Amino acid sequence: MSALDPASGGNGSAPLIEVRGLKKHFPVHTGVFSRVSGQVHAVDGISFQIGRGETLGLVGESGCGKSTVGRTLLKLLEPTAGRIIVRGDDITDLEPARMMPYRRQMQMIYQDPYASLNPRMSAGEIVGEPLVIHDVTPDRKERRERVAALFERVGLRPERMDSFPHEFSGGQRQRVGIARALALNPELIIGDEPVSALDVSIQAQIINLLMDLQEEFKLSYLFVAHDLAVVEHISDRVAVMYLGRIVEITDKTSLFEAPLHPYTEALLSAVPIPKYSARNRRRVILAGDVPSPINPPPGCHFHARCPYAMARCRHDVPQLREIMPGHWASCHLHDGGVRLPLAKTGEA
Predict the structure, then answer these.
(1) Distance of CA 43 to the CA centre of its chain
(2) Measured distance CA(212)–CA(185) in Å, rounded
(3) What pLDDT was estimated at residue 275?
(4) What is the value of pTM for the model shown?
(5) Could you tell me which residues come within 8 angstroms of residue 310 by beta carbon, excluding any fewer than 6 positions away?
(6) Residues with Cβ < 8 Å from 289, sequence gap 6 or more?
(7) Sign (positive or negative) of CA dihedral 93, 129, 138, 215
(8) For residue 51, what are the CA distances in angstroms to 16, 136, 175, 336?
(9) CA of 82: how far to CAs of 20, 66, 176, 219, in Å?
(10) CB-based contacts of 11: which residues, under 8 Å, 6+ apart?
(11) Whether pLDDT at 7 is above 60
(12) Fewer Cβ in 10 A, N or C end of the chain?
């Protein structure tokens, strides 16, 4: 794909990971015989790339499919359709045994630091487990030294290696999770809302730690979140999801200053701005509820709630296309050229 593709990475180099038309549908079983009565369209045909050393923020409201994207990339969930390409290799149909080398290069930080750690294992055993599974450091002493170095790097004292998860605070547990993700020297880390369960002050510490680690180890991130302030701070580019589809993708500055999709406009208008000058800014109130992913509406999934909806939005699916240089959106508003009826939420 060209550098102008909506999936293309921001640095113009060959992508670390590329996703093409990814879909993940879950069957709905009903009745005594568990017949399949429908499909949950969790991810409904998305494409993007992540370059080396780049952070792509993935935002959207709860239930839009953000976390499913991350789990499908790691093949924790098998995709229904589409392709997943890592360093030029298509891993979509690989069996678990052949996935092992790629799993070393792609790790995950989970949302809940309480549920993502085994309570029966010490913190040192948790961080060292990937080294055992992948047979990286068979020697126990060498493995313990490696784990101690990881503890120090994420801001934990090595003396705490023999402590169990319940003996740590929430922020410390998330640091253990980060150390575990770093154990195999991965190239890509998927953060599934890694700071949403933490206090605000601890969130800042974890975000700064992730940014320092990225610079030190040249990591790439897929950062899944619903907190736009966090996404703006850590991301290079941002993709906005609604009901299983990416509706807008661009660099973070363009997205926050001039959103081109009505859903992005509504998201940004809901972000509080602690300035007196922002008291009169336009607030976009969306009508209705999010449609069911089991039976999504035809045409544009957003048309039933969109204040700018036209007749064609009800039956024609808008394609994700380049509206402005490097700024891609899927909206019929721009069919005749760039149209900005959208409030510039960044003005305040």
Answers:
(1) 13
(2) 15
(3) 63
(4) 0.89
(5) 332, 333
(6) none
(7) positive
(8) 5, 26, 25, 32
(9) 6, 16, 34, 25
(10) 51, 52, 53, 54
(11) no
(12) N
Per residue in 298-312, is it b (16+ CB within 10 Å) or e — as a string? ebbbbbbbbebbeee
| pLDDT, average across residues 160-188 | 95
**Rounded CA separation 220/250 (Å):** 17
pLDDT in tens, 210-247: 999 999 999 999 999 988 889 999 999 999 999 999 99
Q: Is the pLDDT confidence value at 278 over 60?
A: no
86 with 186: CB under 8 angstroms? Answer: no
- Whether the per-residue pLDDT at 276 is higher than 80: the answer is no
User: How far is the CA of 118 from the CAs of 111, 139, 147, 189, in angstroms?
Assistant: 15, 23, 17, 20
What DSSP string describes 267-327? Answer: HHHTS----GGGTT---PPPPS-PPPTTSPPSSSTTTTT-TT--GGGGTPPPP-EEEETTE
Q: Which of 134, 161, 135, 136 is nearest to 147 (CA)?
A: 161
Burial class of residue 12 (count of CB atoms within 10 Å of its CB; 0-12, 13-18, 19+)? exposed
Alpha-carbon torsion, ordered 337, 341, 345, 348, to 10 deg: 120
For residue 246, what are the CA distances in angstroms to 36, 120, 132, 198, 250? 27, 40, 38, 27, 11
Structure tokens at 236: 């290079």
Give residue-wise pLDDT tens across range 58-95: 999 888 999 999 999 999 999 999 999 999 999 999 99
CA dist list (Å): 114 to 150, 195, 201, 208, 295: 20, 12, 18, 21, 34
Q: How far apart are CA 19 and CA 26, in angstroms?
A: 19
What is the distance between the alpha carbons of residues 320 and 331, in angstroms, rounded to a whole number? 8
Question: What whole-number distance in Å separates Cα of residue 177 and Cα of residue 62?
Answer: 23
Residues recorded for the chain: 348
